[in-house]
C-alpha cells in the first residue's frame, strides 16, 4: 500500500499540477476514475455531505466513511490512488478518522485547520494535528502517506503572510502539500498571491478551481507559477445536479 502512497507523491510535480476532479460516491468515482487522464481519485466532503442531505459542517465520520468505503472499492478496482477529504479530522476523533480512512484504502488525506464551526486552530494546535495524523499513517506502515494540509486563514481575514506561516508549520509537521483557500468570503486567490505561496512552499501548493476562476487564473498560469496540485472541490456535483434538473425538465416539464 505504501507503493501507492509513493505514487501519489510522485504525481505532485510543481509546474505540472496534479488535477483532481473530486467525487462523492461510487457512481462519480467510476465515471471519473475510468478516464485515462484521471491519475488519482479524490473526495470532497462538501459533496459527500450534500449527497447525504447534510450541510458540510454537519457531516459526521460515519457518514463520511460510508461514502469513502464505496469510493475506495472503485479505486482499488481501477488501480487508482485515493485521497480523502477529512475536514478537520473530526475533532478528538482524529486518530480514529485517519486509521479508518487508511483501512478503507486511502493513501492520502486533506485536513483543515478550522473546526466545523469555523474556528481556526492555533498554529501549534493545527501543526500537532498534522503530526498526529502522520503518526497514525506511519504506524500503518505508510511513511509516504500524503497529507494535504488546508488553511482557511485568508477566508477568515488573515493575511498572505499568515497563510505562509501556517503552511510552513504544517509542512514542517509532516504535511506533503498545502492547500490555501481564498474563498468563499473573499474574492479568491490572485496571481501574485499564488506566486508568493508557490515560492514559499517550493511548489507544494494546492489551488481550488473556484480560486482560479475568481482570480482569473488558468491551468497554464498555475503550471507556469510552479503549482503542484489543483482540485475541483464540489464543482463537479453542481454540474451533475444541473444536468439532472435539465434532463428531468425536458421529460416532465418545468
TrEMBL record:
Molecular function per GO: catalytic activity
Pfam families recorded: PEP_mutase
Source organism, top-level taxon: Eukaryota
InterPro entries to which the protein is assigned, alphabetical: ICL/PEPM, Pyrv/PenolPyrv_kinase-like_dom, Pyrv_kinase-like_dom_sf
SUPFAM superfamilies: Phosphoenolpyruvate/pyruvate domain (SSF51621)
UniProt-listed PANTHER family: CARBOXYPHOSPHONOENOLPYRUVATE PHOSPHONOMUTASE-LIKE PROTEIN (AFU_ORTHOLOGUE AFUA_5G07230), PHOSPHOENOLPYRUVATE CARBOXYLASE
Descriptive protein name: Carboxyvinyl-carboxyphosphonate phosphorylmutase
